[in-house]
Amino acid sequence: MDIRVGHGYDLHRLGTPAEGGKKMVIGGVLFDSSVGPIAHSDGDAVMHAVTDAILSAIGAPDLGTLFPNTISENENRNSAEFLNEAVMRSIESGWVIGNIDITVICDAPKISPFREQICATLQSLIGAPVNINGKTFEGTSKECAIEVHAVALVQRGKHE
Question: What order of strands is seen across the sheet that includes strand 36-37?
């Protein structure tokens, strides 16, 4: 059996709307937050990291190559579109996504109250089990950021 693992990573500085912060969307779920990501697209760091993990696992170009932040059509773009492209590329190249594991690091908002909703949203887009965990920065210098690591397991096979 041919199996691969891919790792994805994303980091966004957080700011108020006056500082350029957008609405806080994490894994496709809108959070009530006074700060949001400062980003070219919608800034969903979870979807960005998961997209890169899938693309990495199948040996495809990364998110920044496929959807550069220098192109105006990607400005404020819904990150679900990026994830859908990664899933379609995996299917077209004969890979089945086995599962996704995600670690979100941010002090606020807290992930745990929305864990099930985030997993359900991502599972509906990916068609595979998703696990997500939240961590804090423990008082380090990254308190005004959201950092995400994601791992994707893929295997050769037919998509059901």
Answer: 36-37, 3-15, 145-156, 95-105, 130-135
Mean pLDDT, residues 128-157 taken together: 89
Contact between 146 and 9 under an 8 Å Cβ cutoff? The reply is: no
In tens, the pLDDT along 19-77 reads 999 999 999 999 999 999 999 988 999 999 999 999 999 999 999 899 888 888 878 88
Q: What angle do CA 15, 47, 12 make, to 5 degrees?
A: 25
Look at residue 51 and give its three-state secondary structure: helix
The candidate with the shortest Cα–Cα distance to 27, out of 85, 93, 103, is: 103
Write down the pTM of the prediction: 0.93
R_g of the chain computed on alpha carbons:
15
113 Cβ neighbours under 8 A, 6+ residues apart: none
For the domain made up of 3-156, the CATH class stated in words is: alpha beta
3-state secondary structure of 58: helix
Whole-angstrom Cα distance, residue 64 to residue 128?
A: 24
